[in-house]
Amino acid sequence: MLILTGAPGSGKSTVAGLLACKWPRAVHIECDQFFHFIKAGYIEPWKPESHEQNTTVMRIVGQAAAAYAAGGYFTIIDGIVLPSWFLSPLTDALGAAGHAVAYAVLRAPLAVCHARVKDRAHGGRGDAAVVERLWREFAGLGPLERHAIDNGTQDPGATADLLAAQLTSLLVAAQQ
Q1: Is the residue at 44 inside a domain?
Q2: 83, 137, 130: which is closest to 107 by C-alpha?
Q3: Spatial separation of the C-alpha atoms in residues 6 and 134, rounded to whole Å
Q4: Which of 57, 87, 123, 163 has the fewest CB neighbours in a 10 Å radius?
Q5: Could you give the 3-state DSSP secondary structure of residue 51?
Q6: What does pLDDT average to over the chain?
Q7: Rounded to an integer, what distance in angstroms lies between the CA atom of residue 135 and that of residue 139?
Q8: What mean pLDDT is predicted for residues 78-101?
């Protein structure tokens, strides 16, 4: 199982789709889709008051991912999984369910991220200030820095190949 994260425009969804095609059985879970299921009471997920909503959504994402992995699928969770917010609860839950979990942060220069999201319809995450704020969240990972992959100039296929080759070294939660 892989949690693939990074700022908006870092290439998560493109790379996750390519990576999933490298396995005979794979699932690409796009966290953003789970937010779209909320039809009343939705709060933009980057706002401080969205924490309870975001915790619920990430718990559900983790449950879905664990179920697919238990069914024998290589599972890629694609979303903005900030180390300071949801990484530990998500990896702890998946590890406790017996799944090895790798974590990778795609990191492109801020200007590249802005250019990639400019023409997309992503609500507030297309807003330059939101993109920059989220980009900065992934700029200094401290002990998780080894999980960062600079893909600003790298072809998405090459990034997927690199991730496939490095999955074991990117583990943050091993099977218990």
Answers
A1: no
A2: 137
A3: 8
A4: 123
A5: helix
A6: 89
A7: 6
A8: 87
Domain hosting residue 110, numbered range: 2-34+50-173
168 closest CA partner among 75, 71, 100, 73: 100
Does some domain include residue 130? Answer: yes
pTM of the model: 0.91
CATH of the domain at 163: 3.40.50.300
Token pair of 173, please?
């939660």
- pLDDT at 176 exceeding the cut of 50: no
Nearest to residue 20, comparing CAs of 166, 163, 170? 163
pLDDT, one tens digit per residue, over 51-71 is 899 989 998 999 999 999 999
Q: How far separated are the first and last CA of the chain, in Å rounded?
A: 14
**Any domain includes 98:** yes
Token pair belonging to 172: 């943050």
Spatial CA neighbour of 137 closest among 92, 53, 54, 80: 80
Confidence of residue 17 (pLDDT cuts 50, 70, 90): very high
Tokens of 88: 């530990």
Count of domains for the chain: 1
pLDDT score at 152: 87
